[in-house]
Amino acid sequence: MRMIRNPVPWPGGATCAVAFTWDVDAESVLQIDHPDTAHKRLFSLSAMRYGPETAVPRICDILAEFGHKTTFFVPTWVAERYPAAMERMLGDGHEIGHHGYLHESPNLLSPEDEAYWFQRAHEGLEAITGQKIIGYRAPSFDVSPATQALLTDAGYLYDSSLMGDDVPYVMRENGRDLIEIPATIIHDDWPHFSHNWDLGATNQISTPARAKELYLSEFDAVCDDGGLWVGVWHPWISGRPARAKMMFEMIEYMQSRANCWFAPLKDIAAHIAEITADGTWTPNVHPMPYHPGKLKEWDKASWQPAPATDERQHANHGQTIESC
Ligand SMILES: [Zn+2]
């Protein structure tokens, strides 16, 4: 049974598109979470600096072995501080995407502040890379209601932060389209491997075999049907030796299992734009925003939630119930 209802005709008769994308966060996440004390947290700083300094060359070596290009999303603050990693990624022909300035979450900013940091990150990344930046992944996937307009105003071709379909789709807002290349938390390495108490992540650590089983189960379900598999991995987490080796083994398996097109997201987005324009394929369209604002059902004037259990107990004793 086919799992993909709107299969994409991928280039060269490929039955699946694959992108192992990497978010090169380095210690930006620690700095944004602990602005006053990050500089003292050497354990976490060292673990996260491992990403651009030790893991990126290893990841690039593996991709070069297969002749694959991919997309690295890099906060501009990180791009400014790790020139050797940038040189390696760019020198190998990989795409660099926008990933905030210091990994700031758009929904924690005012629209004005989001616009400021978006533009500062965009201009800085274009200056460092010499590339026209056309792809975006929101830090922590935290796209805000204001983000899409920023992207379309700046001429971006695609976003890859959302999870609304199995294959690329179009988000249409005020008559303007943006291609979404969906990711999924299932393909993210954070739930499997991230274990750092400074970041509040204390999951049990998976073995690479366990993670690989989950990643490939999703791949197997779509790889013959015009599907898409996008990994969201982090060099400081999955660039460690056994996990990097897992990527090598996954690519070998994918290549043996199906006719896969391994491509950076900019090429996937360009292909989607092309086959949409010439009528070869029709993407699903998501009218945006999903909701214009807070649901009216939450209007206090029309509805009051039931009091919590302990408040009911207070009420039974004639005490005042605080307004919700
Ligand atoms: Zn990130």
**What would the CATH topology of the largest domain be?**
TIM Barrel
Poorly predicted sequence stretches spanning 5 or more consecutive residues: 312-324
Overall 3D geometry? globular
Task: Count every helix, treating DSSP H or I runs of 4 or more residues as helices.
Answer: 12
Helix content: 40-55%
What class would the helix/strand composition place it in?
Answer: alpha/beta
Q: C-alpha Rg, in Å?
A: 22 Å
What is the residue-averaged pLDDT? 93
Q: At the first level of CATH, what is the class of the largest domain? A: Alpha Beta
Spell out the CATH superfamily of the largest domain: Glycoside hydrolase/deacetylase
Largest sheet data: 5 strands, parallel
Folded structure, characterized:
By secondary structure, this protein is α/β, with parallel strands linked by helices. It has two domains: 11-287, Glycoside hydrolase/deacetylase (TIM Barrel), CATH 3.20.20; 294-324, no CATH class. 41% of the residues lie in helices and 15% in strands. The chain contains twelve helices and twelve strands. The protein has helices at 28-33, 42-66, 76-81, 83-91, 111-129, 147-153, 190-193, 208-222, 235-238, 241-257, 265-277, 309-316; strands at 16-23, 71-74, 95-98, 135-136, 158-159, 169-173, 176-180, 195-196, 201-202, 227-233, 260-262, 285-287. The strands form three sheets. Strands 1, 2, 3, 10 and 11 form a five-stranded parallel sheet that branches. A five-stranded mixed sheet has the order 4-5-7-6-12, sandwiched between helices. A two-stranded antiparallel sheet has the order 8-9. Helix 2 packs parallel to helix 10 (241-257). The longest helix is centred in the N-terminal third of the chain and has 25 residues, at 42-66. It is globular. The protein starts with 15 loop residues before the first strand and ends in an 8-residue tail after the last helix. The protein binds zinc ion. The site of zinc ion (ZN) has 5 residues, from loops.
